[in-house]
Specification:
Blueprint (H helix, E strand, L loop, with lengths): L3 H5 L38 E4 L5 H12 L3 E6 L4 H12 L5 E5 L5 H15 L4 E4 L15 H22 L8 E5 L3 H4 L5 H21 L5 E7 L13 H6 L16 H8 L10 E4 L8
Parallel strand pairs: 1-2, 1-4, 2-3, 4-5, 5-6, 6-7
Length: 290
Amino acid sequence: MEDITKKQVEGTPPQTQPDQPGIESEMNPLPTQPYEYKGSGKLKDKVAIITGGDSGIGRAVAIAYAKEGANLVINYVAKEEQDAQETKRQVEEEGVKVELVEGNIAEPETSQRLVDKALEAFGKINIVVNNAAVQYPVDHFLEITNEQWRETFSINLDGIFYLCKAAVPHLKEGDSIISTTSINAYRGHATLIDYTTTKGAIVGLTRSLAQNLADQGIRVNMVAPGPIWTPLIPSSFDAEKVSEFGTETPMKRPGQPSELAGAYVLLASPEGSYITGQCIHVNGGLTMHS
């Protein structure tokens, strides 16, 4: 497989996409996914729900979980149909089963359909990965409209609440919830104020929910990516910013979805059985500047 991480040290080709959350197949270079990941049955016969599982980090988690033996229910939005079908194809190559559920996670009904589909297809739920998100950069705080603020919160935060509320009654001891927060929750971001605020709220929600569900043996954790090369990047930023994306890290490049897969596997697996209320940072050393 081509090592694109070396190329991106010198910058990514300028590019944009018109709509969020972006199409993975249109990115240059294509993000690396964990195709070479070697599973060892850590999640054999487990059932995972993954939001935003059609591309980027969500696809990486789906592929890694499949390689570890988990069956999947993947949520995506309608415009991501092509990416979702490709993820389904790749997951099924690992010999597991996957169900696709289209819908906006900001709507409570979508979470209920995800849970219902998991129970109908597999009879249980063991892992919930809250990964879907949007971000809308603005140059000044006053440019954030009330509508943008509400949309960002409804997808990035409300969706987690709805899915956790629908899924928790079906989780048992040893099961886990994993949410994707962001390095921005710990550092701030001048042009992603509403997005960063939701990611900070995810930190508080994760730590609190972990305490609340500890007696049931349900673990609740999070992963905080730094700058990761996903479809959200060219669909959020202008071409110049995309070309410089990730080069501010000590590793001088953006991370790849494949480089997050191990963190999500650990937090879902028996090897992570004493980890709850915690965050794994995957950011190329960027928080060393904080």
